[in-house]
């Protein structure tokens, strides 16, 4: 059997055709290995700047009702825990000793008035007689002095009547404010003393209610610096909105207002007190409750925000984001974040306006890989209740 030789020229042409066919099939295979990722383009946005602080509630008015005279408590005229009005009588102290003091003062006043009539008449007679040298100048001077002393005795007796009337009035122990009465500290039959200022009951006004918060002096310093640099804008502390979070995690339905920030730093804690006021019509807030408050301190008009899907953290807790650079390749950026705004991280460093951050397909890429960037389709999510980033 004789083998026919194949011309070398035919072999070369066939190889070229096969290679050409293989080259035409490679581009589709290569395109399949270029992953497609969803990106969002970072643009500046106005973001409220909030500070979350802890603190406790305190009554708007806290009146401690104390004894102002000594005596025996005859009766209590209110129900513990009830609402009492300003001027309402709460206790009755035995008035008998003070009635006797008042009567004694009135008698002394009558005696002083009678003495004043006598000394006035004598001074008038001596005035006429001294002119005709019927009495000595010394006798006349003594009569004038006696008149002055009698007048002083009348004034003193009148003041004693006023004092006795005041003390008698203190036997009616009344509420100085309208508010909620607490637990009675004395019972009928108890002996109370003015010298020891015996506490009888506390009356607290619970609507509105104060919330005293603590803020570190460093955070306050940062806030003032950001306002001075123009990074934050604010309408003043009295216009700042405050949202309250109760102990069970629920958001208090009423919005509060910032009253003031203390001007003195506590040297032991390095913090200042920030006071807010809230309406408390339903008596949900009680004095001494532990609460958290979010204070809207201003607005950052040029904040950069990144969806939470586009931010990861390494083992050290550093925030990271994958971006598509100008060459279409993946680059990793460490971020400096300052808090959350809704479903977005607020970024203070690591990104610039116009950067394309990868938020979809992160699990199939790595730094340096070429990718195809397409706009991401993120679900619309409502803003969080906080509505701001921490300062």
UniProtKB/TrEMBL annotation:
PROSITE patterns: PROKAR_LIPOPROTEIN (PS51257). Residues 303-364 form the Multidrug resistance protein MdtA-like C-terminal permuted SH3 domain. Residues 101-171 form the Multidrug resistance protein MdtA-like alpha-helical hairpin domain. Gene3D superfamilies: 2.40.30.170, 2.40.420.20, 2.40.50.100, Helix hairpin bin (1.10.287.470). Residues 63-204 form the Multidrug resistance protein MdtA-like barrel-sandwich hybrid domain. Residues 208-298 form the Multidrug resistance protein MdtA-like beta-barrel domain. GO terms for biological process: response to antibiotic. It comes from the Bacteria. One of its GO terms (cellular component) is plasma membrane. Its main location: other. It holds the Pfam family RND-MFP_C. It is found in: Cell envelope. Belongs to the membrane fusion protein (MFP) (TC 8.A.1) family. This is HlyD family secretion protein. It comes from Caballeronia fortuita.
């Amino acid at each position: 059997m004789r083998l026919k030789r194949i011309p070398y020229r035919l072999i070369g042409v066939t190889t070229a055709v096969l290679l050409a066919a293989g080259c035409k099939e490679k581009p589709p295979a290569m395109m399949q290995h270029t992953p497609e990722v969803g990106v969002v383009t970072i643009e500046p946005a106005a973001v409220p700047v909030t500070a979350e602080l802890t603190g406790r509630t305190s009554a708007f008015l806290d009146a401690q009702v104390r004894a102002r005279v000594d005596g025996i408590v005859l009766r209590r005229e209110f129900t513990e825990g009830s609402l009492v009005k300003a001027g309402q009588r709460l206790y009755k102290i035995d008035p008998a000793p003070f009635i006797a003091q008042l009567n004694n003062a009135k008698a002394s006043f009558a005696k002083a008035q009678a003495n004043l009539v006598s000394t006035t008449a004598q001074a008038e007679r001596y005035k006429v007689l001294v002119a005709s040298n019927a009495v000595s100048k010394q006798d006349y001077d003594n009569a004038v002095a006696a008149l002055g002393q009698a007048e002083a005795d009348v004034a003193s007796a009148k003041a004693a009547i006023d004092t006795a009337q005041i003390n008698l009035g203190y036997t009616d122990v009344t509420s100085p404010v309208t508010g909620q009465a607490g637990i009675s500290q004395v019972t009928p039959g108890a002996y109370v003393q003015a010298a020891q200022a015996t506490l009888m009951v506390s009356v607290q006004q619970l609507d509105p209610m104060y919330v005293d918060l603590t803020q570190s002096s460093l955070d306050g310093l940062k806030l003032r610096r950001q306002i001075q640099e123009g990074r934050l804008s604010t309408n003043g502390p009295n216009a700042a909105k405050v949202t309250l979070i109760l102990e069970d995690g629920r958001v208090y339905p009423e919005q509060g207002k910032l009253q003031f920030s203390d001007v003195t730093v506590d040297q032991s804690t390095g913090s200042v007190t920030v006071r807010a006021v809230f309406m408390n019509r339903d008596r949900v807030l009680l004095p001494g409750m532990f609460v958290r408050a979010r204070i809207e301190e201003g607005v950052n008009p040029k904040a950069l925000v990144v969806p939470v899907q586009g931010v990861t953290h390494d083992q050290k807790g550093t925030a990271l984001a994958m971006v598509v650079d100008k060459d279409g390749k993946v680059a990793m950026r460490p971020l400096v974040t300052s808090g959350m705004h809704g479903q977005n991280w607020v970024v203070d460093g690591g990104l610039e306006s116009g950067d394309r951050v990868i938020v979809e397909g992160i699990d199939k890429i790595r730094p340096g890989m070429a990718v195809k960037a397409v706009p991401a389709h993120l679900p619309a999510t409502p803003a969080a209740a906080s509505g701001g980033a921490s300062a």
